[in-house]
Design brief:
Elements lengths: L7 H6 L7 E5 L6 H11 L4 E9 L1 H13 L13 E7 L4 H19 L4 E7 L1 H14 L13 H9 L3 E4 L5 E10 L9 H9 L2 E2 L4 H5 L12 E2 L6 H7 L3 H26 L6 H18 L13 H23 L4 H4 L4 H6 L1 H4 L8 H19 L1
Parallel strand pairs: 1-6, 1-7, 2-3, 2-4, 4-6
Antiparallel strand pairs: 5-6, 7-8
């Protein structure tokens, strides 16, 4: 079953299973810590273990202050009641940095064996690897690639393989889900820590600097990210969400992939020379990027989105796409379609419809039908 996080791009496009392993690699300022904060706040784990491995002191202070003010949506109590912080700031000894990761995973396994679902946020494993490198140098061990010890890969695998979903001896089910941030220098994903981490995790949320600089958060790049848990969780989706969920997800991703190919053409010759069908793909992809993939952590409606709303939002976007395709097939140009404000209305769903007001979403299907009928009647 998936770990429900309330973050659309994660739950819908690149989900992680309970007891799974994920990596969040990204350069400085791309939002690794913020993404992990969101997962710690809103994921449906029973207990959160947040490991600040080599973190700046102000970031750990921010976690303490923010989490104590927030209410756990499931229990109604303070979020800190289910959160364990392993505070290892960057000014602490290197040996403590190495120990912090193992301390966190040992605590997680303790609660897992009691029948709890635990999620670990390790921020960041790169600083842990740097501590390994420094200790290895002091021990005068033979360095390997980029000065890291030769056993870097085995240490990483030994950490991530401790994730899992288990039946406990007391008849309950428990899990440990590991989500590790990776901080490659210069956002170079070919460096040893990122490459070795990719060998062991099954979810890769690649953060993109250009998206972060454009204020697009979470800055997860959909072209380079992936999840290998979808096939394992297909039965769960079919039973709890509906068989159409995976179909909608595939169609959303296909539009985003088509946009990436068209962008290369647009850079060379401009969008005006494209046929209307391809201009529609670019416009619908913009709706997906701004109205679905992008999420505002500071907006009360948008910081957490339930699964049902995510599915309905996908349905509305794809319904708009189908209706516009029919209008273009009737010879109506994309310029005419864009004179209406229907695209902006669909983008604004995330801010205009609360999580407890899902009945309002039916009105958007009616608005799309009204938009279609208006232009269809004019053309007829």
């Amino acid at each position: 079953m998936p770990l429900i996080t309330g973050q659309r791009i994660i739950d819908t496009l690149f989900p992680i299973g309970k007891g799974g392993m994920a990596a969040i690699p990204g350069g400085f300022g791309t939002g690794k810590t913020m993404t992990q904060h969101q997962l710690a706040k809103w994921s449906d784990a029973d207990i959160i273990v947040y490991i600040g491995c080599g973190e700046r002191g102000n970031e750990m202070t921010e976690v303490l202050e923010d989490f104590s003010k927030l209410t756990d949506p499931r229990t109604g109590k303070s979020l800190m009641d289910r959160t364990i912080l392993i505070a290892n700031t960057s000014n602490m000894p290197v040996a403590a940095r190495e120990a912090s990761i193992y301390t966190g995973i040992s605590i997680a396994e303790y609660y897992r064996d009691m029948g709890y679902h635990v999620a670990i946020m390790a921020d960041s494993t790169s600083r842990w690897a740097e501590a390994l490198r420094e200790l290895s140098g002091r021990l005068e061990e033979m360095p390997a690639e980029e000065g890291f010890p030769a056993y870097l890969a085995s240490r990483l695998s030994g950490f991530y393989e401790r994730a899992g979903y288990v039946d406990t001896l007391n008849g309950r089910e428990g899990s440990v889900t590991i989500i590790g941030a990776v901080s490659p220098q210069g956002a170079d994903f070919s460096e040893p820590v990122t490459q070795n981490t990719k060998r062991f995790v099954r979810v890769f949320w690649a953060l993109d600097r250009s998206l972060a600089y454009a204020r697009h958060f979470p800055a997860i790049q959909w072209l380079t990210s992936y999840s290998e848990y979808l096939d394992d969780m297909e039965d769960w989706y079919n039973e709890h969400v509906g068989a159409e969920f995976l179909t909608h997800r595939k169609n959303i991703l296909r539009i985003l992939y088509d946009e990436s190919e068209l962008i290369e053409i647009v850079k060379l010759i401009g969008s005006d020379v494209l046929p209307d069908s391809q201009r529609l793909t670019l416009e619908i992809a913009r709706v997906i990027r701004l109205g679905f993939v992008q999420q505002n952590a500071y907006h009360s409606f948008d910081t957490y989105v339930p699964f049902e709303k995510q599915l309905r939002m996908m349905e509305i976007i794809l319904y708009l796409n189908d209706r516009c395709k029919k209008l273009i097939g009737l010879g109506i140009s994309m310029n005419v379609l864009k004179t209406e404000d229907i695209f902006e209305k669909v983008i604004s769903i995330k801010y205009n419809v609360g999580n407890n007001e899902l009945s309002k979403l039916d009105g958007y299907f009616k608005e799309i039908d009204a938009f279609y009928n208006k232009l269809y009647d004019k053309n007829a």
